[in-house]
């Protein structure tokens, strides 16, 4: 027996997403079967669907910001019951044995984590060996990789917390951003807007660093205390050596030197957006004032749950535009142009109309 699932899939690197049917596995003893309500549209979905990061296999079902309700559980599941509101982020499995997994940092699994889409199901036995994502009406996942969603949050607006949220929350926590620190968030998109909200909720003095005065004004509405326009050479000079922490969400390769100079002695800039080469990285800002640049990838399961609980307590969700699945290709075009405030979220109830 298997679970009939409807979805939207990319048939090839150049084809638009189209309706697609496949079968999910029946629950193993520790599995949870989820009826998907909402799924966020992450820029990674588009890179993968278009094979821009190479290795995509087709048909390809994107989506790793999944919120739904538990429909069935395996007979050894202890954490969840039918009807619970739950989430799935970027991971659905890892080796569970290495030092990173033992520390609850499954995203850094030494043997490679299994992505929610485009991953290889290491346990096997599924009709599709490659994992297929959340642009679908059902998903079966081991309970270790299922998150509890706070019931007080709008489930659609909470969906992008599972990727954009944890990607920005984790470095702010790891580098111990605290009340009163001056924190710069570089870039205002899906990641940057969550960085502003989290840093603000943690009590930091938040500075939006952007090329665009319009984005600066938007960031103030989201909780930024100040705006620093990175093209304003005089303002950038005044801001030298003044930041306790920088969260860099720019999604493409860029010159990091002007930003590094903004850090105080011993402070760190964390890159979470760009996977492309960072050009002309000069040693000077590192050597003078002992500054650091680091990177950070999403978060492990325990920290993702901590982030969701933090959001429940502080009433933090993403700013979203809800769409029907039939509008996904238009949403991709707009996401590529940066024309979204700040995340598209698919209402999977619309799959029934397909
Ligand atoms: Zn993502
Ligand atoms: Zn591992």
Short description, anyone?
By secondary structure, the protein is of the alpha/beta class. It is 24% helix and 27% strand.
Task: Give a structural overview.
This protein is α/β, with parallel strands linked by helices and 354 residues long. The protein has 2 domains: 2-163 and 319-353, Quinone Oxidoreductase, Chain A, domain 1; 165-295, Rossmann fold, CATH 3.40.50. 24% of the residues lie in helices and 27% in strands. Strands 3, 4, 5, 8, 9, 16 and 17 form a 7-stranded mixed beta sheet that branches. Helix 4 crosses helix 5 (190-201). The longest helix has 14 residues, at 301-314. The protein is globular, with a radius of gyration of 20 Å. The protein starts with a strand and ends in a 7-residue tail after the last strand. The model has no long low-confidence stretch (mean pLDDT 96). Residues 94-95, 97-98, 100-101, 109-111 line the site of one zinc ion.
Topology at a glance:
Layout: E1 2-9, E2 18-25, E3 31-41, H1 43-49, E4 66-73, E5 85-88, E6 91-93, H2 99-102, E7 114-115, E8 138-142, E9 147-148, H3 155-158, H4 164-174, E10 182-186, H5 190-201, E11 205-210, H6 213-222, E12 226-229, H7 233-238, E13 243-248, H8 257-260, E14 263-271, H9 284-287, E15 292-295, H10 301-314, E16 320-324, H11 328-336, E17 343-347
Parallel strand pairs: 10-11, 10-13, 11-12, 13-14, 14-15, 16-17
Antiparallel strand pairs: 1-2, 3-4, 3-8, 3-17, 4-5, 5-9, 6-7
Helix pairs in contact: 4-5
Residues 42, 44, 64, 90, 163 line the site of one zinc ion.
């Amino acid at each position: 027996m298997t679970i009939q699932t409807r979805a939207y899939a990319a048939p090839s690197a150049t084809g638009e997403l189209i309706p697609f049917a496949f079968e999910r596995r029946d629950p193993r003893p520790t599995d949870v079967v989820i009826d998907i309500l909402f799924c966020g549209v992450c820029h990674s979905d588009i890179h993968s669907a278009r094979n821009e990061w190479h290795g995509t296999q087709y048909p390809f079902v994107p989506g790793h910001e999944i919120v739904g309700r538990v429909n069935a559980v395996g007979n050894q599941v202890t954490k969840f019951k039918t009807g619970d509101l739950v989430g799935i982020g970027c991971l659905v499995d890892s080796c569970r044995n290495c030092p990173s997994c033992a520390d609850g940092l499954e995203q850094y699994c030494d043997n490679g984590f299994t992505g929610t889409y485009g991953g290889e199901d290491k346990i096997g036995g599924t009709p599709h060996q490659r994992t297929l994502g959340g642009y679908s009406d059902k998903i079966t996942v081991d309970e270790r990789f299922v998150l509890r969603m706070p019931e007080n949050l709008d489930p659609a607006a909470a969906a992008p917390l599972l990727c954009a949220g944890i990607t920005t929350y984790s470095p702010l926590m790891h580098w111990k951003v605290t009340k009163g620190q001056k924190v710069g968030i570089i870039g205002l998109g899906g990641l940057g807007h969550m960085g502003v909200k989290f840093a603000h909720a943690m009590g930091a003095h938040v500075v939006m660093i952007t090329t665009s005065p319009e984005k600066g004004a938007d960031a103030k509405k989201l909780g930024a205390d100040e705006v620093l326009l990175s093209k304003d050479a005089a303002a950038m000079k005044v801001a030298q050596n003044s930041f306790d922490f920088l969260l860099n969400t720019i999604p493409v390769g860029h010159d990091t030197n002007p930003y590094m100079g903004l850090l105080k002695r011993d402070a760190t800039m964390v890159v979470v957006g760009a996977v492309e080469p960072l050009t002309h990285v000069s040693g000077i800002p590192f050597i003078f004032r002992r500054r650091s640049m680091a990177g950070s990838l999403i978060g492990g399961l325990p920290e993702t749950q901590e982030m969701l609980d933090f959001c429940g307590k502080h009433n933090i969700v993403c700013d979203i535009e809800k769409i029907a699945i039939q509008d996904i290709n238009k949403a991709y075009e707009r996401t590529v142009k940066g024309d979204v405030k700040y995340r598209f979220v698919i209402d999977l109830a619309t799959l029934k109309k397909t």
